[in-house]
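Entry 14: structure prediction run for BLUF domain-containing protein. Input pasted below.
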Amino acid sequence: MYNIIYISTSSQFFDDYTLASILEASRENNKQVNVTGILLYADGTFLQVLEGEKEDVEYIFNKIICDFRHSNIIELVKGPVKNRIFVEWAMGFASANADVLQEFEGYVNPAELRFISDESHTAAMILLQSFVQNNRMN
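Run finished. Output tokens:
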């Protein structure tokens, strides 16, 4: 099992309709190669976890890198993991603003360089798990 956690800047601010369209396409693409994960969108920033077999995760991530809707892509974590965290989600999704995200345990400002550190994986996973527990998604 393998995962990639990254942040990126969106090319524009997306409305709910556009985000729903992105989510639908992501879920379909991920299901085809058995990749699971979660996508958070807040104030023009994406934070995403992709998990699955290494070649499948890298395939999806390379599609994201080529997607004009993303810029300033920063890999926070990339490597083997013991288990999937988001087993049931081809792509869980939530949209929030930064004020909401700051309320969750593990939040760190992605604009700060200290976010990219040895503790990034733990901090990112704590944030995501806290967000998921407080916002059960279908």
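Notes: The CA atoms of residues 7 and 74 lie 5 Å apart. Will compare against the previous run tomorrow.
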